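WARN retry 2 of 3 for item q-0093 after timeout on previous attempt; input resubmitted unchanged.
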Amino acid sequence: EVHLVESGGGLVQAGGSLRLSCAASGLTFDDYAIGWFRQAPGKEREGVSCISSSDGVTYYTDSVKGRFTISSDNAKNTVYLQMNSLKPEDTAVYYCAADPLRYSASYYFPTYAYEYEYWGQGTQVTVSS
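OK item q-0093 returned
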């Protein structure tokens, strides 16, 4: 069974950095898109950053461009999200998710929460001002 485990969340001051990790098992890493999503109280779950390592395609929502970087280590079946210059509005539960690649990512790349099949339990990120 596919299993995703997030780690690296915590409390940080505005302007600080955190590095989230998503360790995946039970899947062939290159056959999946891996995404980071977040959900703050009262808000919908939004796609933050996604990656298809096999296609070399990445996605970032506009609000994190230039601050967050997604990367993968296929040998470890792990995806990372380096978050720099954190802002209070980044506060949320961050989830790692995986979805089987059905197309070349250059043709269609899933970036919406409802498209993803497998989910981790989430890790809390809190940014104080």
